[in-house]
Specification:
The protein has about 500 residues and is of the alpha+beta class. About 55% of the residues lie in helices and about 20% in strands. α7 runs parallel beside α12 and α8 packs across α10. It starts with a helix and ends with a strand. About 5% of the residues have low confidence. Bound molecules: adenosine-5'-diphosphate (ADP) and magnesium ion. The site of magnesium ion (MG) has 5 residues, from α10.
């Protein structure tokens, strides 16, 4: 039902309006009751006290006829003055006297018919003794009042347990309890009950209800209009992002979204655009990678095919075949190296590569690498200068991959050294790390190229001329290995003066 942001917002707004309306109306109902009735309450309570005076007179004068008349007149006056019904109630709900305003005969009649058990009392019913006794039919009408302490009153607004329901408006009901000690020492307890209609309360309630309803309706309408505009503004950019995402999913990375709001949606659009740029980079890196790989594969394969064809069709004479076959073998080896390197790289990048950490002597590893490259060292008549802090230094690392790092660095150093050059290899101890370095005094690397050498397939223009066997993957793999060890590798180089690579390894203490 509430599938769109718009419908959700409208639903929330309407709920808020209803809740506010209900709260406001009930607050008002409570408030209006007390405001309108407060003056009246005091008036009729005073009237009750006034009747009480005559009641005492009546009791003091042994129920004389004059006193009876005075009491009845006091009650009638009150009824007339306050437009109310006045009852004098004795214990057990005995109705001693009933008076009411002349304008209220009709109501009084219906009230009276409900009040009494045994026919209607005459307006001149005797307060005590003699004549028939009348009884309030419903206990609720007097029970609470008799539970009050003497002189205490209770007020309520409403239909007084249904008695005044037919009138259609609320009544102010006041009951006050009195007690008089008679000459014989006994207590005479009675309640004066005064009921005044409050059409004013009803009127105020109705007119308030009407205007509150109008206000609620208007605010609901305004909320819906505002909600409509706002959710439009909110959902429009979301829809834009959605559209853009679909276009991008189809491989069109040139798509950007143009939202310049400064809220979360604007932020989302910014992040989205950033993501698209990154995706575009990944995509172009992927394309470049494929182009590089194909290029690297094609060059040796073309020459292999050329030589093999030449041998087969006799273009290459028999006595020169061996020389060309050796080239074919070298190229095959290069292809092999390339493919192995590519596989390794793929393993690194997919996170498949697992280091098997062990404690080993890195000085020993260095020696082994130098020895395995001795053919190339001698070819170029390079002098190797070793500086080791100690004869053996142990580290905690993956031995095979570290051997590969050192081998590759040495191999590069030899490759990019001059004839009769010098290579310094060092293993030094730090507080926590062992630093391994390989320095040469070869061609060096231009400053603007220093960053790029770590990239896959990167070979500097200069090195391309000197070295045709490289794949440009060596340093990229080296960096992957060192990163995987959570260690650091740095390069320092000056064009024409030489290059130093240095990396750290975790020291394994003890001999
Ligand atoms: N010791 C060095 N001296 C000068 N240039 C170097 C040295 N080591 C690496 N480079 C530069 O970095 C590039 C990338 O090296 P590498 O990733 O090992 O690839 P490759 O050895 O296959 O060329 C080299 O082509 C070269 O330009
Ligand atoms: Mg290399």
């Amino acid at each position: 039902m509430f599938k769109t942001i718009f419908s959700k917002q409208i639903a929330i707004l309407i709920v808020i309006v209803i809740v506010a309306f209900t709260a406001e109306t009930s607050m008002f109902f409570l408030f209006i009751n007390s405001v309108i009735s407060r003056d009246k309450e005091n008036d009729i309570e005073n009237a009750a006290d006034n009747i009480d005076i005559f009641m005492r007179l009546y009791l003091d004068n042994q129920s004389s006829r004059t006193a009876t008349n005075q009491l009845r007149m006091a009650m009638e006056r009150t009824g007339e003055l306050h437009e109310s019904i006045v009852m004098l109630i004795g214990e057990e709900g005995r109705l001693l006297l009933l008076a009411s305003s002349g304008s209220m005969r009709a109501t009084t009649a219906t009230v009276r018919s409900r009040l009494t058990l045994e026919g209607a009392p005459s307006d001149g019913a005797q307060p005590s003794g003699g004549g028939p006794s009348y009884q309030l039919s419903d206990e609720r009408l007097y029970q609470r009042a008799f539970q009050l302490t003497d002189g205490q009153s209770e007020k309520s607004i409403g239909d007084f347990f249904g008695i005044f329901r037919d009138t259609g408006y609320p009544w102010l009901n006041m009951q006050k309890k009195y007690s008089i000690t008679l000459a014989d020492g006994s207590d005479f307890v009675y309640v004066i009950s005064i009921h005044t209609p409050m059409p004013l309360v009803q009127d105020a309630r109705m007119s308030f209800l009407r205007s509150a309803l109008q206000a609620a309706l208007i605010s609901a309408l305004i909320s819906i209009v505002i909600g409509f505009i706002f959710s439009r503004r909110l959902t429009k950019p979301i829809r834009k992002i959605n559209e853009a995402a679909k276009v991008i999913a189809n491989g069109n990375f040139s798509e950007r979204i143009n939202i310049d709001s400064r809220d979360e949606i604007g932020e989302l659009a910014g992040t989205f655009n950033h993501m698209v740029v990154e995706l575009e980079n990944i995509e172009s890196a992927r394309r470049e990678f494929i182009a590089n790989v194909s290029h690297e594969l094609r060059t040796p394969m073309t020459s292999i095919k050329g030589f093999v064809d030449g041998i087969l069709d006799g273009t290459i004479p028999h006595e020169r075949q061996e020389r060309y076959l050796k080239i074919v073998r070298d190229e095959t080896e290069r292809l092999n190296r390339l493919v192995n390197n590519l596989l390794d790289m793929a393993r690194f990048e997919s996170g498949e590569y697992r280091l098997s950490m062990a404690r080993f002597d890195v000085v020993e590893t260095m020696r082994r690498c130098v020895i395995s490259l001795v053919r190339f060292i001698e070819e170029k008549n390079i002098r190797i200068v070793a500086s080791f802090d100690r004869e053996s230094m142990h580290v905690e690392a993956d031995q095979d991959s570290i051997e590969r790092v050192i081998y590759n660095l040495l191999h590069n150093a030899i490759k990019f050294s001059r004839q009769d050059g010098e290579i310094r290899v060092g293993v030094r101890e730090d507080r926590e790390a062992v630093r391994v370095s390989v320095s040469d005094d070869g061609i060096g690397i231009a400053e603007d190229e220093l960053k790029s050498i770590w990239e896959r397939f990167y070979k500097s223009d200069k090195s391309r001329g000197q070295d045709k066997t490289g794949t440009g993957l060596g340093l990229s793999i080296i960096r992957n290995i060192i990163n995987e060890h959570k260690q650091k590798i740095h390069v320092f180089s000056r064009l024409g003066e030489g290059t130093t690579f240095e990396f750290t390894l975790r020291r394994a203490d003890g001999p």
